[in-house]
Amino acid sequence: MKLPTPPLPKALRPKPARPGSRAPRNGSQANGSVQDLRPGAANGSGGGPSKGGGSTIDREQRKEKFEIPIGIAGWLDERSGASPFARGFLYRKTPKGTNWAYTLGSATMFAFLSQAVTGVFLAMYYNPAPADAYESIARISNEVFLGEFVRGMHRWGSTVMVVLIFLHMARTFFYGAYKYPRELNWLIGVVLIVLTLAMALTGYLLPFDQRGFWATVVAVNINASAPIMGPYLADFLRGGSEFSATTLSRFYSIHMLLVPGLIAVLIGAHLYLVAKLGITAPPWLKAEKDKALTRDEI
Amino acid sequence: MAIKPKQTKKSPYAADRGIPAAHEGETVTRRRFMELNALTVGGIASAAFGLPALGFAVGPMLSDTTEDDFKRVGLEADFTADEYVPKVITIVDDASTASKTTVYLRRFNPQIDTDKFRQPYVAISNRCMHVGCPIRYVQASQRFICPCHGGIYDFQGLVIGGPPVRPLDRFRARVKDGLVEVGSRFSVTDALDEKYQPRDPSNRVDGLWKYLYPPRPTT
Q: ipTM, 2 decimals?
């Protein structure tokens, strides 16, 4: 014996379409209050106006999901073709089994973005002269509105970025994601690590306190210990044979213009290759055999 | 699979390569010529701003940035032959307190000193020869001690412990009109018998090492 299905409670029943909603549930086309007013936008999808049938409606609805409304976004999209690009980039396929470890790369990038933004604003108050550098930092910390917070984000964010970039590298290494065809992306990543450490080193001097000063003296002399090229590299970093006012402004310029520019460009290349080559499945995941193919082979 | 026949060398003449409208004897097509032109002009334009900017950045590497003039540090009576007196001198311009350095001074003592520099005063630089931390003279033990990584030097500045690679640098010193004056820095060998242009800390100067750490234009 089979009982008839009880009717759905009122709360769960599908709601009637609101007047003027874009995709009326009853399938009737065009009750007309809000419609795409571009010529050919409503029925211009090649097949002409839908002549009934569920599949057409499905397709229309799916299309609608990606449709850009008229307005500034639509205006820009029509002229730049940004949405197919953004769709391809953001909705690209990822393998089964991806997990939180795969977010370390974006986490590092956001750490960089936060450093870039806070750094730009710190530069509004910072003065890279030996006599004023420490004073200007003290002013940021003690007097400027939210200065302590913004400087704190920059100072701690630098550590966070270094930690994240190494975790990201470890993930790539242990998942074997550096193998063919992704070796170039690994190499770009290695350069990015070196540049990140260069940021950490050059930024350490900028408060111009005892710790930053002596750490820089030691770091530059470690550079100088490399045979033949080392002393010249040290001279380049110091801007002469002794630590001087040039050294501070030089480190400031490297810290806020040279290296961030390189990092931004290389992050672009890194992301392009990630999107182009796709990401790797975790190594513990076996490739699934296509059943149809197996049957054919037999 | 068939092995590809080895490609015969292309003819240098555009006409032989099937390029339409090639005139007789043409080897470089117009398209190729324009390509090369664009690359050359672009290269020259980039070099025109790139090379001067690069030279601007590396300029300080190529000119002598040390000061040669002597600075007065005190009267002769201020110093003895068996104790070091610390004096502060300025070695670079306008870097605020960072442009100053400490010099440890005493009179030359023939009973202790074995160096061949023939200076009336021994002027020891306070820069540790490991990686450049400031060393400190400890009176009780008559040693120079570095706080960073434990470098220890004896009364003459010779390494007797820790990671430093050579004896402490010295300064030129002279007496003029009864005043002791200190000049530029120089590096010394382990035997204290030869002077060198000042090298960076961490650079050895003895034996073949001096070729691995060459003198630079800046010193």
A: 0.84
Residue A30 has pLDDT above 60, yes or no: no
In angstroms, what CA-CA distances link A136 with A131, A214, A247, B155, B214?
A: 10, 20, 18, 42, 39
Q: Name residue, tokens 């990201």.
A: A168
Residues in chain A whose Cβ is within 8 Å of chain B: 130-131, 208, 213-214, 217-218, 220-222, 224-225, 227-228, 230-232, 234-236, 238-248
Q: Give how far Cα B194 sits from Cα of A228, B113, B128, B206, Å.
A: 21, 14, 19, 9
Average pLDDT over residues A120-136: 94
CB contact under 8 A, B216 and A241: yes
For residue A165, with 0-12 CB atoms within 10 Å meaning exposed, 13-18 middle and 19 or more buried, which class applies? Answer: buried
CA separation for the pair A177, B26 (Å, rounded): 51
Instruction: Enumerate residues 6+ apart whose C-beta is below 8 A from B59.
Output: none
Q: Residue A58: is its pLDDT beyond 70?
A: no
pTM greater than 0.90 (yes/no): no
Give the integer Cα–Cα distance in Å for A216 and A201. Answer: 8
